[in-house]
């Protein structure tokens, strides 16, 4: 059997990883400034993570949600403490799309309504409701087409207010910072307006923190920079540092009922051990503070260089918009300097999502490469 070919692949086979570095089967070293789409939060193969997951596997790896799994409660408690959402409850699942699918379903169950507001350039995943809230027609199959999702222009107050006037809205879903869309940051006043309109209209405010959460922006969640409190927050990616895990944080105003949501693998012992170790390391190594410092360090070093139109960032969620498409530049970074970076749905934006414990020394490698390539007119 061959693989179903849906991914264009780099000719790289990584066999070892540590911190912000990866090594191929031929022993070549690479600097990872992308973390496999914002997944590697505390660094590849962090010793605390390896120890905790290995120990858990040796004890018990899995049993279903039909029995007590105390490590789920430990995780929920720690997540509440670190995020400031101690009064919320946690539903665990396995991926970002699944977290959003459950969040949308929950909002609809709770309100009894079905119209969902979402935004231009949004990406929320590939399952039925998550993909219907995603602004990319190419990945919406005919079976997923529905008029329950209203797409509005991002950061546009007027269209938001009109949509609430003209429709009975169940929920608004917005990313803490749009990732795939090219690191587009919602204005604080826009998030505040969403919160007020949801409260006034018995609608649920869902914030997708799958890429922007777990400390990446210097706060636990990106929306906390705007001082808002959503009703539902979705998490995945950095939550497990590579172990597949997702979660839905749910306001106390939404009541659980047996059978309302469910999953076989969600919340398994191994996933909880992985996520707990991530939280422990974020706390003990002060990685949120490091994300703020390192983000500022990198952006200060790059901001006046030629070839850059704009840098949008919060902490270590960084979008560098070039004056031209970034594909050649990314290729040169990879081939000439062994540096992995990401792209976005807008062709000119380079996405930089390093591990949260990245150092100035590692960022200097990228800054030097950037300056050299700018001189070589890979950038004009
Ligand atoms: C903001 C956001 N939401 C949801 C998802 C979907 O997550 P997953 O690929 O784990 O289903 C992604 C993935 O890139 C994302 O960036």
From TrEMBL:
Pfam families: Aminotran_3. The keyword Transferase applies. Its cofactor is pyridoxal 5'-phosphate. SUPFAM superfamilies: PLP-dependent transferases. Keywords: Aminotransferase, Pyridoxal phosphate, Transferase. GO terms for molecular function: identical protein binding; pyridoxal phosphate binding; transaminase activity. It comes from the Bacteria. CDD domains: OAT_like. InterPro entries: Aminotrans_3 (IPR005814), Aminotrans_3_PPA_site (IPR049704), Class-III_PLP-dep_AT (IPR050103), PyrdxlP-dep_Trfase (IPR015424), PyrdxlP-dep_Trfase_major (IPR015421), PyrdxlP-dep_Trfase_small (IPR015422). Belongs to the class-III pyridoxal-phosphate-dependent aminotransferase family. This is Aminotransferase class III-fold pyridoxal phosphate-dependent enzyme. The lineage of its organism: Bacteria, Pseudomonadati, Bacteroidota, Flavobacteriia, Flavobacteriales.
């Amino acid at each position: 059997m061959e693989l179903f070919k849906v991914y264009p692949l780099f000719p790289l086979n990584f066999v070892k990883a540590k911190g912000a570095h990866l090594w191929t089967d031929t022993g070549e070293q690479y600097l990872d400034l992308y973390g496999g789409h914002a997944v590697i939060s505390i660094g590849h193969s962090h010793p605390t993570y390896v120890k905790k997951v290995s120990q858990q596997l040796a004890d018990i790896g899995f049993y279903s949600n039909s029995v007590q799994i105390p490590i789920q409660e430990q995780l929920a408690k720690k997540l509440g403490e670190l995020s400031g959402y101690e009064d919320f409850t946690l539903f665990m699942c396995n991926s970002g799309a699944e977290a959003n699918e459950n969040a949308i379903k929950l909002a609809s169950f709770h309100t009894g309504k079905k119209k969902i507001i979402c935004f231009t350039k949004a990406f929320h995943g590939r399952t039925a409701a998550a993909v219907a809230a995603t602004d990319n027609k190419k990945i919406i199959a005919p079976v997923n087409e529905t008029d329950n999702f209203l797409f509005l222009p991002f950061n546009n107050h007027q269209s938001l207010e009109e949509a609430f006037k003209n429709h009975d809205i169940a929920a608004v879903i917005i990313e803490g910072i749009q990732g795939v869309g090219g690191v587009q940051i919602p204005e604080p006043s826009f998030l505040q307006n969403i919160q007020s309109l949801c409260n006034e209209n018995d609608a649920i405010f869902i914030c997708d923190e799958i890429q922007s959460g777990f400390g990446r922006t210097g706060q636990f969640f990106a929306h906390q920079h705007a001082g808002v409190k959503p009703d539902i927050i979705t998490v995945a990616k950095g939550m497990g540092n590579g172990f597949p895990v997702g979660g839905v944080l749910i306001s106390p105003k939404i009541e659980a009922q047996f059978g309302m949501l469910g999953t076989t693998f969600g919340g398994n012992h191994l996933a909880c051990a992985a996520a707990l170790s991530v939280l422990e390391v974020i706390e003990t190594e002060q990685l949120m503070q490091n994300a703020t410092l390192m983000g500022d360090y990198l952006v200060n070093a790059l901001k006046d260089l030629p070839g850059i139109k704009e840098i949008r960032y919060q902490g270590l969620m960084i979008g560098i918009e070039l004056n031209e498409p970034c594909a050649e530049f990314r290729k040169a970074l990879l081939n000439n300097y062994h540096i992995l970076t990401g792209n976005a749905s807008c062709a000119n934006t380079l996405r930089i999502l390093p591990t949260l414990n990245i150092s100035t020394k590692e960022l200097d490698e990228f800054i030097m490469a950037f300056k050299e390539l700018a001189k070589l007119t890979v950038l004009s």
